[in-house]
User: Fold this.
Amino acid sequence: MTLGLFDDLPATPQAPEWLEPGAVVLRGFALPQAIELLQAVDAITAQAPFRHLITPGGQRMSVAMSNTGALGWISDRSGYRYGPTDPTTGLPWPPMPALFRQLAREAAEAAGYPGFVPDACLINRYAPGTRLSLHQDRDEGNYDHPIVSVSLGIPAIFLWGGAERADKARRVGLWHGDVVVWGGPARLRFHGVAPLADASHAMTSGLRINLTFRKASG
DNA sequence: TAGTAACT
DNA sequence: CGGC
Assistant:
């Protein structure tokens, strides 16, 4: 994608691409806010720095993570959970910017989930080679609320699996500005990210930034 | 088990 | 694969 000067500029408003009932890719949905979103990520991660979490099995995740909002997702040797404070600093996670909340609500509504009010935004930073193996989002209080995932920077191949880990995963390209929303019958689908290819993007210093919005409590 | 090794 |  090093040649794709205009890869993040869709020629026309894009039709929603349904992966299955309940799950949709909104191409370019976050493009108008991309610069502001990335500026906010810089401000947030100046307070809650990116770090590589450890899985319960003791392995270092290749994705660097931070959080914004009342709750943040964390992993360590004792498990996965949401918590109100950053284990690295002991401070509350930085408050979620109104722009983030609004984008998540609008994307969820466009996907058929009106009234989404996220209380957690996991910020994932991917460098070339970074991956995220297939998993389910199962650490939230209930599964009535959708997941909203915003892609910024260099492209990735999203792995869209099934209800069981062994199900074959579909490979879906995600570019700067794309937003994936899944909920309802698709809420517990396995998903992940293939190892990132080398690429560059002017707005992210050659990285991919992913914002994943969830309602973790309530 | 949000990762890895150790296979085929 | 074994501890939440």
Observations:
- Helices of chain A lie at 34-47, 98-110.
- Chain A has one domain: 15-214.
- The mean pLDDT of chain A is 93.
- DSSP finds two helices and 13 strands in chain A.
